[in-house]
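User: Could you check the structure of this?
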Amino acid sequence: MLTYLAMGLFGCGQGGVISEATVEMGRAPLRRLNRIEYDNTMRDLMGVDTNPSRWLPPDEEAFDFHTIADALNVGPLHIDSMDIGADEVLNQFFGPVERTYIIEAEGSWMSRDGAGQRDGNGFYVLESGALRTTIDLPHAGTYLIEVDGYGAAGGSPTVTLHIDDEPIGDMVFAVPPGSSFTRSFEVELDLGYHNITLQRQLGSVGIDAIDITGPINITWEPSDHYSRIMLCDVREEGVPCARRIIGGFQQLAWRRAIEESDVDWAMPLYELGYAEGGTPEDGLRHAFKATLMAPDFLFRPEVGPEVGGDPRELDGYEIASRLSYFLWSSTPDDQLLQAAADGTLADPDVLRQQTQRMLLDPRSTALVDSMASQWLDIDELLEDVNPDPTLYPGFDDELRVSMAQEMRLMANDFIRGDMSLVELLTTHETTIDQRLALLYGLDVPPAADVWTTVSMEGEDRMGILGTAGWMTAHSKPEGPSVVQRGKWVLNRLLCSAPPQPPPDINQDLDLRDTEGSVREQEERQRSVEPCHTCHQVMDPIGFSIGRFDGIGADRIYDELGYRIDTRVELEGAPAESLQDLADFVITDPRLNRCFAEKVFTFALSRPPADDDQRTLDSITSTFTRNGMTFPALVNAIVTHPVFRHRGDYREIP
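Assistant: Sure, the predicted structure tokens are below.
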């Protein structure tokens, strides 16, 4: 199985390098599932509540997202991690099975220190020191631990059992020399690795083995997903039933129609698992694991047209997969697969109906978890931002989480269609808790865990740019960053980000030994080339909202004690507030086109190429004409031929 996997994965040409010389009309390039998609797919396929992606390396970001095909590379570490993740998921899906693990004292799985010797009968006589071993348990639960040994001399030889360095109990082998005896303990253990030690206390003890049995007293009910996959009783019906179950599982996991040859490929693994484990369920587990480790599951393959041929229309399953991973970051559900199988998903009206249904489904919160969180840098706020505690003593992880939640709630309203793109930037309503109310200087909600929708009318705080979370995510530890805030607006809202600074330019400003306000020093130090050209576009945006400090609170004075000056010109128009900045952005003709480009990139797992510009014109026009809501943009993308067709690679002249 691993040989097949390696050939399949490394034959996919995933090098992790984005080439600007390749473009394919209408294509979402071959790519693997990213970490969010991997977790969500396992959840919706198997009904598990674990997060196996934690074993995977972080996904690479490109073009602002973690969905870009050419950045989602694959290496040996990914394979090893996916192998662990598949085992974890299958352990939960099939439920716990009571097993006995026998670790012999003289075996290779036991390490020995101190004084001792083998007695020739399979026992190890422990005279001092300890015996140690490690076990990886597939399930949490109650385990029976039995130590088989004998008293090697008179008296009351004693050994202490330790698990993960915690003493569990003493075992006294007060029996005639040479007489064997067993001591038992019942212990609650979590799944995963555990260190087990037998520490000699008194006398000499002969140890035969440690037997670990469990989990015992199992209570487990199969999930709805279990019943959906286990279509028949394999114990009663044998191989025909096994083939039916495996084929059905492959169709769900691989998101396509299944041929008999697909089932034939998995059956030897079923037979091998059955022979080794002794039960049909063990055989199915082997076949299921091969299915979950196959490129058809880990990637989103689409069969392209012949080289040089015209773009072809995707089949129903391919459209279903594009749609579900766009809106849910997960696998298609039964309703979507049925529309794929009967061919109706190719009908634009059916596609619109399915899109509307999916946007109303709770699984569409994945758009907040993935697209919105990456676009708005909510992930960065939660993981990478650390304001200086001496400058911002009121900032802690609780406030960090509150900031992220305010942004998520606002983004969710936008994605649901409750506000337009313009309203996302200009709304005076927001939903806050007690910590945020204190930060914003508002009346405090009655309890810390109460979230209340409030109006910020009359305050110069509005929309997503006015949230403390956005302000904090685009600040440095020592204070707000006009560069980060200005660059984000230009890149994420107007698609006009300046180029990266030359590598030999020092971007850190030392403000301690220079006179003047922070703004004056920044303007002075960036007034010469090669800095001036870029900063004259970027910095005024940041200066216009300079009254918000490094965690988004209002302020009057800068870090050096000078009064904040927010007066700027934005492309010739005077501005000095967040309101002015918002007005500048929402009246800029680049806004709608830029947002359409961002969502296009997320949906198709690739940035738009030159040949896509007319397509983006059409999508943007439809988006604007229909109120600039997120559902309007989604419908414009998924019903456009670019979403429903796939072409062949060709070189840009």
